[in-house]
Amino acid sequence: MTEESIRTNPDQRLKSLDTLRGFDMFWIIGGEAFLVLLTKATNWNWLKPFAAQMHHSHWVGFHFYDLIFPLFMFISGVAIPFAITGKLQRGVSKSILTRKVFRRMILLVIFGFIYNGALRDGFSDMRAASVLAQIGLAYFFTALIVIYSKNVRTRIIWLAGILAVIAILQLLVPVAGFGPGVLTAEGSINSWIDQHFLPGHLYGGTYDPEGLLCIVSATSVTLLGSLAGYILRNKEITPQKKTNWLLISGVVLVIIALILSPVYPIIKKVWTVPFNLLTAGISFLLITLFYYVIDVKGWNNWTLFFRVIGLNSITIYLGRRIIDFNHMSEFLLGWLSKPAGVYGPVIIIIGVLIAEWYFLYYLYKNKIFLRV
Predict the structure, then answer these.
(1) DSSP string, 195-229
(2) How far apart are CA 12 and CA 111, in angstroms?
(3) How far apart are CA 36 and CA 222, in angstroms?
(4) What confidence category does residue 3 fall into, taking pLDDT thresholds of 50, 70 and 90?
(5) What is the average pLDDT across 5-32?
(6) Around Cβ 358, how many Cβ atoms within 10 Å?
(7) Is 14 exposed, middle or buried (0-12, 13-18, 19+ CB in 10 A)?
(8) What's the whole-model pTM score?
(9) Taking the CA atoms of the chain, what radius of gyration do you get in angstroms?
(10) How far apart are CA 27 and CA 257, in angstroms?
């Protein structure tokens, strides 16, 4: 399965991976807002615990919505063995592959600038960090490790090294005025590094959740995803054993994260090691479920909705920043939403989701996929 065939022939792709990516993106492009607005309109008590999970944790802790970004990074890592390992085995030079992943990184960094409003507001005091830049940089570093490492053992050593460096910096290196191990928005080593070395304004004021140390830390999640991809691509392992290995990996990572959390908190905004382990563990469990249901059991008739989103995930992430789908929905459905009272916003967000999906479905039917 070549990178080219993966991108141009969606039927040849690992359907579970595209479905999971689409499931992940669904919450970003309107699923989260739909659930929150529906809960507010109906006031159904059984929905309230789910709606409460549709917000990021304030600092320490974990909500479902905290999983969305690291899950996407994990998925990008899963795709690396499919996109790169096969080419290495066919004799494609490492330098060519390095240039390709470098180009991908640069494009995602540029897209991140565009997302942050560079074309609208200019580069003066623009936020340099972005979700897309973090994805691109983490993918680049992970891809380099995969390209130049001799075996999986070497990749695991790299993983352990990254996690160890992050833990040492966050727990042991003193920050002027605060000391070591202060994991707050003002006193963390992440904040100090971002304030001194990250250009532009910081999203969190004193830190950036996609800042320099966060990028390095988050690379561990993408690298763990590449290990999951190695398992899924390995033809010597039966589908049932793949499922077992993925499941065991997820459970072990979650347990380790929970054991560490009382002394080393789970904090998304500075990407602590327990946060990385927890989100990677849950990601392992999700890919296990999706792989088993879709690719092992073949129960995939329901996957089209999510696969259409997953096959053009970067397109819709950028597209909804440029195209005002909300205005489109209000223009077409205002006659329904205005007399609907508290249900009006629910109708509008449903319209947004429908417009976004059919936009992506048009691209899907015409085999138009953003190549990054």
Answers:
(1) HHH--S--TTSS--TTSHHHHHHHHHHHHHHHHHH
(2) 27
(3) 29
(4) very low
(5) 80
(6) 11
(7) buried
(8) 0.94
(9) 21
(10) 24
Where would I find the H helices in the chain? 3-8, 15-26, 32-42, 48-52, 68-80, 86-89, 94-115, 118-121, 131-148, 152-172, 189-197, 212-233, 239-260, 273-290, 304-310, 313-322, 325-337, 344-365
Report the amino acid identity of residue 169.
Answer: L
The answer for residues whose C-beta is within 8 angstroms of residue 233's C-beta and 6 or more apart is 81, 82, 85
Q: Distance from CA of residue 362 to its chain's centroid?
A: 24
pLDDT band, very low/low/confident/very high, at 1 (cuts 50, 70, 90): very low
Amino acid 59 reads W
pLDDT tier for residue 228 given thresholds of 50, 70 and 90: very high
Contact 107, 122 (CB under 8 A): no
- Please determine, for residue 271, whether its predicted confidence score (pLDDT) is greater than 70: yes
Summarize the confidence of residues 7-12 as an average pLDDT: 45
Q: Dump pLDDT digits (tens) for 329-347.
A: 999 999 999 999 999 999 9
Nearest alpha-carbon partner for 273 in 251, 253, 247 = 253
